[in-house]
Every structure is written in structure tokens, then in C-alpha cells.
Amino acid sequence: MTDQKDPARVAAGLKATMQNPNVSMEAKHHAQEKLEQMGAADPESEHGVPVRYAPTAGEEHRVHQLAGYKAALHNPRVSEKGKAHAREVLEASGLQAEKEPEVSHEEHMTHVLAGYKAALNNPRVSQEAKAHAREFLESQGAL
């Protein structure tokens, strides 16, 4: 946590990240955001020149493009073929595609049943939906 570290050293590390050519555009954006949160935005180098990472238009487009591929991995409307393509693109760009956690059928059913049980006690759920939840829970022997 930065509140337990020397803020000057943290800022120095973030500035170094922004200047490192081996660091991804996403990491440079993150470093800039952290500097701004710390109140160290637009710091000056030893030569008096402001140090701020400014991506080119092409880099900015690529960052947005990769973010779209990341979002596709979690979008239920994207086909498995589309998700596989998104993983390939992310891995080819040096980013690790997040793998969805594997959940057993039993664990999945536990979550489903918990959701239906929660619906029964939620005042914002319609009576029709509560009736459906009750029927499903009864059919599963969970009521």
C-alpha cells in the first residue's frame, strides 16, 4: 500500500514506468493515473521539462482496442469462437487473457439456488418472479 511507503519513492517508480519503453501502454496509463491521484501529476525532471506520458493516436487506439478484447471475454453475448479469438489477440500483444474460474456443477447450482432464495426475500422482486423462484426451489428440493 502506498500509504505505508515513501510517497516520493512511489512517485519516482511511477515516473520511471512512464519512461520505460518496455512497459505496456496500459501500464503507462495506470502509472499516470496513480501520479495524478497522489497529486504528483506533471512532475518535472531534473532538467525542468515536464514528465508526462502522452500516447500517440495509434497507441491510444490500440489500448482501446485491447480493452474491447478484454471486455469480450466476459460478455455473455460473445460466442466461444469470438472469445477464443480475443484470447489469441491479447496473448499475442503480451497481455495474459484472464481465464474464467472453473466452477463445478455443484458449486454453480449452489449459487443458482442462493439467487432464487434471495429473490424470495427481495422486496423489489415481483410476485410473479417470486412464484417462479418458489417453484424452481421446490422442484430442486431446496424449500
Automatic annotation (TrEMBL):
One Pfam family it belongs to: Con-6
Annotated region Disordered: where? 1-51
The GO cellular component terms are: cytoplasm
- InterPro entries in alphabetical order: Conidiation-specific_6, UPF0654_domain
The residue ranges flagged as biased composition, category Basic and acidic residues, are 26-36
Lineage: superkingdom: Eukaryota
List the PANTHER family.
UPF0654 PROTEIN C11D3.01C-RELATED
Protein name, per record: Conidiation protein 6
| Native species | Hericium alpestre
